[in-house]
Amino acid sequence: MSEPITYAGAGVDTEAGDKAVELMKSAVARTHGPEVLGGIGAFAGLFDASALKDYRRPLLASSTDGVGTKIVIARQLGVHDTIGKDLVAMVVDDIVVCGAKPLVMTDYIACGKVVPERIADIVRGIAEGCEIAGTALVGGETAEHPGVMEPDDYDVAGAAIGVVEADALLGPDRVAAGDVVVAMASSGLHSNGYSLVRRVAEHAGWSLDNHVDDLGRTVGQELLEPTRIYASLCVDLAARFGGLHALSHVTGGGLAANVARIIPAGLAASVARDSWTLPPVFALVQKAGAVPWHDLESTLNMGVGMVAIVAAEDADALVAASAAGGVPAWVLGEITIDDGRIASPDTVRGAKGVTGGAVNLSGAYRLG
Fold this sequence. Notes:
Layout: H1 14-29, E1 36-37, E2 46-47, E3 58-66, H2 70-77, H3 81-95, E4 101-111, H4 116-133, E5 136-144, E6 154-165, E7 180-185, H5 194-204, E8 211-212, E9 217-218, H6 219-223, H7 231-240, E10 244-249, H8 254-260, E11 267-272, E12 277-278, H9 280-289, H10 293-297, E13 304-310, H11 312-324, E14 329-337, E15 347-351, E16 354-362, E17 366-367
Parallel strand pairs: 4-5, 11-16, 12-17
Antiparallel strand pairs: 1-2, 3-6, 4-6, 7-13, 7-14, 8-9, 10-13, 11-14, 15-16
Helix pairs in contact: 1-4, 3-4, 5-9
C-alpha cells in the first residue's frame, strides 16, 4: 500500500505558519491603538472609524504596492526585516501625497516554504514601518506555494487605506505659477530600479560584503537601506502649512516623471540638478555600469524621495520644518508658465497616463 498523501507531504506546513504568527504577534500589536478591535488571527481586521463622523466630507484614499527585486538582495544577505519597512513606505507614502492620513494597512507574503523566523522578521519590519507611519497593521496573509516558488523564494505586497477632508485634498489643481518646488531627501535607492542596480552589480563584480569607502559601509548594507517613510511628517506639514499645494512620491520613473504627475497643463516645474549633492551610491552605479545619465535619472530617485510644491511664502518654513522632522530638504526650483518648447531629454511631460504640465531639468549633478 502506498504512503498516504498529506498536506504537509505536499509541501504546506500549517504548523510552521502558526509558529510564524506567534513570533510576530507582539510586533503587530504595537501598531494597534484603541481604534483596532480584536487581534491577530481574525478573518478580517476591524478598525473603529467613528472619528470619520467629525469630517465634513471624508475621502478615502487607497494604495497597494510591493518592493520589487530588492527582495533578491535581502535573500542573498539573509536579512529580511528591512524589506518590511520598504513595503510600508511604498504604500503609505503614495497615500499621503493627496494629504490623506494612512489609517490601516494589510500585508500579503507568498513563499515557497514557510520558515517561521523569516516570516516573523518580514512582518516585524512591516510593523516597525507602520509604527513610524502611525498606521495600524490590521491584517495579513502568508501563503505557501510549493512547486510554484522555490523554498527560499518569497514576495511581499501590501495595501493601505487613509482619509482626507475633501477641502484639504492636495493635488495639481492647487498648483500655481510662482509656487516653489521643494525636495525632501531620500535615504538611498529606496525600492525602485533594482533590476538596473543588480545588473550593474553583476557586471562590476561587486560582492555584497565588500566595504566601499565612498559609501562608508558594505555594498549590501547600502542596497538594503530601508526606504524612508515620509507619511507622518507629510501629514504634519499639510496640517501646518496651508500653502502646501501638492506632494509627489518619487518612485518608479524617477524624479522628473513623478513630479510631472502633479503639474497641471500650462505650467512647468524647474529642477536644478546642481541644487544638491548627488549621494555617492547613484554616481557609483552610473560609473560602474556606464549608465547614461538620462537613463539613470529616469529610473532612480537621485537622492530625492518626496517633492513638495508650496506657496513661496511658506517655502523656507517648510524646508526648516522638514529638517526639524529629520528629513533634509532644499529648494529645487519653481513653478512657471509652460513655454511649450519641444520636448528634449531635459524636459518631461506627463507620466503614467497623466497628461499635465512639464518638468524642466537643468544643470549638472554635483558629485560628492
